[in-house]
Amino acid sequence: CAEMAMVCLTDFEEYAKEHLSKSTWDYYAAGADECCTRDDNLLAYKRIRLRPRILRDVSVSDTRTTVQGMEISFPVGIAPTAFHCMAWHEGEMATARAAEAVNTCYITSTYSTCSVEEIVAAAPNGYRWFQLYVYRDRKLSESIVHRVEALGYKALVLTVDVPYTGKRRDDIRNQFKLPPHLKVKNFDGLIQEAVGPEEYGIPANTLDPSISWKDVYWLQSLTRLPVIIKGILTKEDAELAVEHGVQGIIVSNHGGRQLDGGPATIDALSEIVDTVQGRIEVYLDGGIRTGSDVLKAVALGAKCVFIGRPAVWGLAYKGEEGVREVLQILNDEFRLSMALSGCRNVAEINRNLIQLAKL
Ligand code: FMN
Question: What is the pTM of this model?
Answer without folding.
Answer: 0.97
